[in-house]
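Look over this one:
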Amino acid sequence: MKKYISNPIKSLATIAAIIIICLNSYAQDKKQEISISVGGPFSFINYNSVGEVQPGNGFNAGIRYSYYLNEGLSVGVGVEYQTYKSDGKFGYLAGQYMTTDAEDENFQFRYRATNVREEQKLGYINVPIQIQFETPGTSQLYVAGGVKIGFAASGTYETKMQNLTTSGYYPQYNVELFSPAFAGFASTDNIKTDKQDIDTDVSYSATFETGLKQKIGDRSSLYIGVYLDYGLNNIYDKNNDKNLVQYNAELPVQFKYNSVLETPFANDVRLISYGLKLRFALR
């Protein structure tokens, strides 16, 4: 998974260093606030597809540093970890493309899959930058908004198919073969693939949060609110030109199964998260 975090590691180290410096000076300055938070449960990967995308659940946990410009207005930056999950469901998917078999014969590989289900899971390290406004008093209303930059930390997918039928059409002989199985042409039920990695891009999200801030001591507070993070960009901005089922001439009985996100069956992949958020803060 090192490939996911090699690019953002310097940025995250810089942010962590800033937070540590702020913590060192925190005790002498009431203009600063340090908070830890957890949130969820709705967190999923949203995309346009020829099937149905069923949103899954996820969570986030992080730390935030805020600096108060005045008693009601502050700016904050932090680091959090967020998980996302979705299930893509497709009643019928089919494709065909030219390739070469083990005997160097050109042919058209054809596949037809029924009741396809793909489960996708992502983990992101997000860096939120927000402006927050709050009312005065012991029980305060607050509203915060800003942006989040997210860096992929992990990503996997797993595919299931009720049935997969593969065949080979040889135009030079004008014949379509549905067998033998050792050549990669067969009908197979109840296919389940192993978990495979998927590499997604940096995410940019708009973030909004509002709720109640309750003071519970001289310098501590509890935030209870709702939040929404909405992805602004396509995190899988690839060519989407791969095939769901990839023929393997060296070992025809063993196909490679690509994610639907890599195929023309899906596009415009964005991250969405919303739900409740709890924060404990010291100022």
About this structure: The chain is about 10% helix and 65% strand. The CA atoms of residues 56 and 213 lie 29 Å apart.
